[in-house]
Amino acid sequence: xxxxxxxxxxxxxxxxxxxxxxxxxxxxxxxxxxxxxxxxxxxxxxxxxxxxxxxxxxxxxxxxxxxxxxxxxxxxxxxxxxxxxxxxxxxxxxxxxxxxxxxxxxxxxxxxxxxxxx
Length: 118
Hints:
By secondary structure, the protein is mainly α.
């Protein structure tokens, strides 16, 4: 999924795909900002706290091989934090909020790496 988004961003930067196809109205700016902030903050917070949840801890303690499954879920939540901001930034580059939210999601994905439980 993240590879497809990276490819989409590269094609946008090279001018192969169209950019700025959202109309620059106050309503669209508000909607884009709201979606980006909610997904960036919510996805980052959920991804960072996923492995400390009771369900994940009990599943990993019962079966240490389940850690890989929970890591994939954490990666998916990080994608929820990053992908909408990347897509909306190129859909209408009239606001910098999606760019900052994408930065927040990437920073959270890099900083919130769980400790080794061994």
